[in-house]
């Protein structure tokens, strides 16, 4: 009996041991599977999370390259921006931290929570931007209470800053936050969401040089996210500095002359193609785009009928009006339909078919040759030259002179303009070209469209003897240490389709526009300096033959646009200008005085203008000369 019981006890203990062994084995299997999952499957992610509990990588934004004028005067630099962010992992409980922060910086907690809710999907250890570029008073308040604001961090980054509000805004351009499409395009390597890039003007054209390279530092943080040690630092590399061809003094003077007007003025060195000034009015404050623009302000900008966001110097298209007579004269002389002695009688009108085309001078100019016709801007003379040439021959000379196509200036969204041909009209409208339309385009009306920069290039080419330069806005690019990376060189695009004799006759006429007693721009004369130029007035609406020519009686928005192109000194010119004033009524009244002051300002600085001391620097009263 005893022996039987011992055997039974042994079996019972054996069964218990086997069960326990199975349980232990199962437990170890579960632990092994769990460890395998953690180490192999989730190992990389857990390792990253573990490191971020104590060691984190902070990015350091580079300083964007500075922008200077031709003489090294600073136009755009950077200023410090204090940005407030929160790291959710360190800010538990988040709601309590946000409530405390809202009271400190006097911002509604709901506004801060909205930004957090919009950042769903962002890793808990990565900072979420709550407020950018906040003031120094708020910064001080946050720093004083930082131990009560776990997870709240203040970052400092360089923020773009234009030193001269609204000055050269259309040329320099602005920055704005990179969008998803731009990030995916691959055109902006090294950028991330939230970065600012050039969106317009020079800032966009030279983005790759200006941006610089991001740096970073490896830091050790405590349980509340406060940095306790810096383990490693890689310095950010600042962007390259850009030196433009513009003259800051001339730029500011030009902008002052355009204040309160809609239009554009641009100046160039005829011998190099360097742009000396480029102003478009009205302008905008480029700093608004970096510091954050309200929806209301943006709506005001884009709804403004005078188009402040448009660079009118290169984007706006206008009929060239009488300034186009330079091309008509060139074509007529080169094609032999007129010569120096050819003269036509102007009784104040020209009959063509069953229509009467009027001259701006109702009583007529009498007998005039090509030089005299340029001086007095006789429409009748150029009607007849255009008729003899035909639309297509006239268009060829215009296009060969650089009109109707982009100049190649290194700025985005340059307009082409339009030089019409008979084939163009047929394709565009399905109707044949009419002879009367040739008369209109011969004096720069009708379908003709040009930009101010195109008229400047043409004027510069006439001034320098026929060389067409590509407009240049870049002088050089330097590293932050001063090493030259790019030294820009003048680029010749071609030659005017005119011989020296033709150009001399045209230049003689342009000199007379300003200096002859009959010239349409007599009031532009500058004591001690010969100025040559051409006026033009663009009809905004057509008028019937029996209507009076008075512009003053029309509503402002129906008044004519005013052109003036010029260069000076007439011999060995140093500056060429093109000015357009929208609804300015007359080229001699509105545009020419602006050009005169631009020339005066620049030449006073460069040498010949020393003779102008007695002339003063303000606009003088201008006698209005109706110039067609």
TrEMBL record:
Identify the EC number(s). 3.4.16.4
- Gene Ontology biological process terms in this record: cell wall organization; peptidoglycan biosynthetic process; proteolysis; regulation of cell shape
Its domain of life reads Bacteria
**Membrane-protein topology:** Single-pass membrane protein
Which organism does this record belong to? Candidatus Desulfatibia vada
Q: Which residues cross the membrane?
A: 20-40
Concerning InterPro entries, the annotation shows: Beta-lactam/transpept (IPR050515), Beta-lactam/transpept-like (IPR012338), Cro/C1-type_HTH (IPR001387), PBP_dimer (IPR005311), PBP_dimer_sf (IPR036138), PCN-bd_Tpept (IPR001460), Penicillin-binding_protein_2 (IPR017790)
Where is this chain's protein located in or outside the cell? Cell membrane; Membrane
Q: In terms of one coarse class, where is the protein primarily found? A: membrane
Give the GO cellular component terms, alphabetically.
plasma membrane
What residue stretches are annotated with the HTH cro/C1-type domain?
91-112
Keyword Repeat in the entry? The reply is: no
Q: Which GO-annotated molecular functions does the record name?
A: penicillin binding; peptidoglycan L,D-transpeptidase activity; serine-type D-Ala-D-Ala carboxypeptidase activity
Alphabetic keyword roster: Carboxypeptidase, Cell inner membrane, Cell membrane, Cell shape, Cell wall biogenesis/degradation, Hydrolase, Membrane, Peptidoglycan synthesis, Protease, Transmembrane, Transmembrane helix
Name recorded for this polypeptide: Penicillin-binding protein 2
Pfam families (UniProt xref): PBP_dimer (PF03717), Transpeptidase (PF00905)
């Amino acid at each position: 009996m005893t022996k039987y019981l011992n055997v039974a006890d042994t079996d019972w203990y054996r069964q218990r041991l086997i069960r326990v062994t199975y349980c232990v084995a199962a437990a170890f299997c579960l632990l092994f599977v769990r460890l395998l999952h953690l180490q192999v499957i989730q190992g990389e992610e857990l390792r990253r999370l573990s490191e971020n509990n104590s060691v984190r990588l902070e990015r350091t934004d580079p300083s964007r390259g500075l922008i200077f004028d031709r003489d090294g005067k600073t136009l755009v630099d950077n200023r410090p921006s204090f940005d407030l962010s929160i790291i959710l992992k360190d800010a538990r409980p988040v709601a309590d931290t946000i409530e405390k922060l809202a009271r400190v910086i006097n911002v509604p907690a709901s506004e801060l929570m909205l930004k957090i809710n919009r950042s769903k999907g962002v890793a808990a250890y990565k900072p979420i931007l709550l407020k950018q570029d906040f003031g120094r008073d708020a910064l001080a308040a946050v720093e004083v209470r930082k131990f009560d604001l776990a997870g709240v961090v203040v970052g400092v980054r360089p923020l773009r800053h234009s030193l001269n509000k609204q000055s050269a805004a259309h040329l320099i351009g602005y920055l704005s936050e990179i969008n998803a499409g731009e990030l995916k395009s691959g055109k902006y390597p090294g950028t991330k969401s939230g970065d600012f890039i050039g969106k317009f003007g020079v800032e966009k054209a030279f983005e790759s040089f200006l941006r610089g390279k991001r740096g970073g530092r490896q830091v050790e943080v405590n349980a509340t996210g406060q940095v306790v040690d810096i383990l490693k630092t890689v310095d950010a590399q600042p962007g390259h500095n850009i030196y433009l061809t513009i003259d800051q003094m001339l730029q500011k003077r030009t902008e002052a002359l355009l204040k309160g007007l809609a239009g554009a003025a641009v100046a160039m060195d005829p011998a190099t193609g360097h742009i000396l000034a480029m102003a478009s009015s009205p302008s905008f404050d480029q700093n608004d785009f970096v510091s954050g623009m309200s929806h209301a302000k943006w709506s005001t900008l884009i709804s403004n009928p005078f188009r402040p966001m448009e660079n009118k110097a290169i984007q706006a298209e206008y009929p060239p009006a009488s300034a186009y007579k330079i091309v008509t004269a060139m074509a007529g002389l080169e094609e032999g339909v007129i010569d120096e002695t050819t003269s036509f009688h102007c009784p104040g009108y020209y009959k063509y078919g069953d229509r009467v085309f009027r001259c701006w001078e109702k009583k007529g100019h009498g007998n005039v040759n090509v030089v005299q016709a340029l001086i007095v801007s006789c429409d009748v003379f150029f009607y007849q030259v255009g008729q003899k040439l035909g639309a297509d021959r006239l268009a060829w000379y215009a296009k060969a002179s650089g009109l109707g196509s982009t100049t190649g200036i290194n700025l985005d969204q340059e307009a082409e303009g339009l030089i019409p041909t008979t084939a163009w009209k047929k394709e565009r409208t399905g109707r044949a070209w009419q002879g009367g339309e040739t008369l209109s385009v011969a004096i720069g009306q009708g379908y003709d469209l040009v930009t101010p920069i195109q008229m400047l290039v043409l004027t510069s080419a006439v001034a320098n003897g026929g060389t067409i330069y590509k407009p240049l806005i870049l002088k050089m690019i330097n590293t932050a240490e001063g090493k030259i990376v790019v030294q820009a060189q003048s680029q010749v695009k071609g030659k005017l389709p005119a011989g020296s004799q033709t150009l001399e006759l045209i230049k003689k006429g342009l000199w007379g526009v300003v200096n002859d007693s009959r010239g349409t721009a007599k009031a532009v004369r500058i004591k001690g300096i010969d100025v040559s130029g051409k006026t033009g007035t663009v009809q905004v609406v057509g008028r019937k033959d029996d209507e009076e020519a008075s512009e003053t009686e029309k509503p402002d928005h129906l008044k004519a646009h005013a052109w003036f192109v010029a260069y000076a000194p007439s011999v060995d010119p140093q500056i060429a200008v093109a000015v357009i004033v929208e609804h300015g009524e007359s080229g001699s009244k509105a545009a020419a005085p602006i050009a005169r002051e631009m020339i005066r300002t620049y030449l006073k600085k460069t040498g010949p203008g020393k003779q102008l001391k007695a002339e003063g620097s303000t606009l003088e009263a201008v006698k209005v000369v109706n110039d067609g």
